[in-house]
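Structure record:
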Amino acid sequence: MYERKIVKAKNRVLENGKIHFGTFDSVPENIDIRGLRKPFGLLPLPIFSTNTRVRSSVAFKFSTEKFLGFFQIFNTRFLTYGEFVLFDTQNKQRYIVRKFSFNFKRIISFSTKTGGCVFFRHNFHVRINWTGEKLNVFMRFNQYKTPVALHFTCERHSEEVGEISACLPEKVMRRCRVFHQIGGRFLGKVKVGSETDSAATALCFFETRHAYYELLFNKRNICGFGVVGEKSLMFSLSQSSLDSADRYEFNDNTLTVDGKVFCLPPVKMTAEYGLEKKWVIQDTENMVDLTFTPDQKSKYGLSAFIFHLDSSILAGTFEGAFFLKDGESITIKDLPGLGYNVRLRL
């Protein structure tokens, strides 16, 4: 049975140019990875130059009785891209906004204790802030004169909320990526037009990530939310071009059950007949056996000079099972969730 090694967390993941790799037993106070020496081999590049290859992102995914939502801000030293897709699972409608902003600063904090992210563009306002006790997420935008707004908050020390963080090597040990994830029950509401969906029992994932990116990047991710029996269950599974050569020891796959976080083995996701058809998700440890069937999609593509973006966000349902240690198994059927596939050249 798979069991990932847990290491003691330091205050900083990078100290004096040395990286502390591993999945941590607590959350480091600072996850800044800028300042690595020669992250791209023996090329004599100054540190301020290699620091520009550090990309940051904030993602928020949630599920209420009526809505599935996906929100992400991708931030570089010169460019910020924000997108939000809200799927109405009952009426099969979508509310979408995507915005670019050219700037010369980073808008996502490297601190996990006190920080935030603010992004304002025409008809798209995002404000996220967190302290050691609380996390707040607020967004609003207009689509074809239909106002959409949401506000969620959670107590980070609640028994129904789980946190995990890790610093993982990329293809070579010279470079690294770090993530901090909060998952559990959030309080809040979603408002579309004059209709309000109070989501006192919303299940949500919040993630911050920082990584050294190469010119080409691709990623595939799935996440599911729901109540199975009397347990609230959420999971996030990924595979990307930044994955370590040793994915067995270093990956970011997690399962959260009633605020308790379990580490999962690396998985393989295949969509043999296309992204809009059934996905198959399996691992080699016989712990994950899932299928994902999309029924709504949002696709976006953009090319300009060397920049290229191809993004697909899908809403659907999961079926299958998780097999945990001590013979425990969790069977899911018609569990709502999201799929995400992106290719990026920047």
User: Anything to note?
Assistant: The chain has a mean pLDDT of 90.
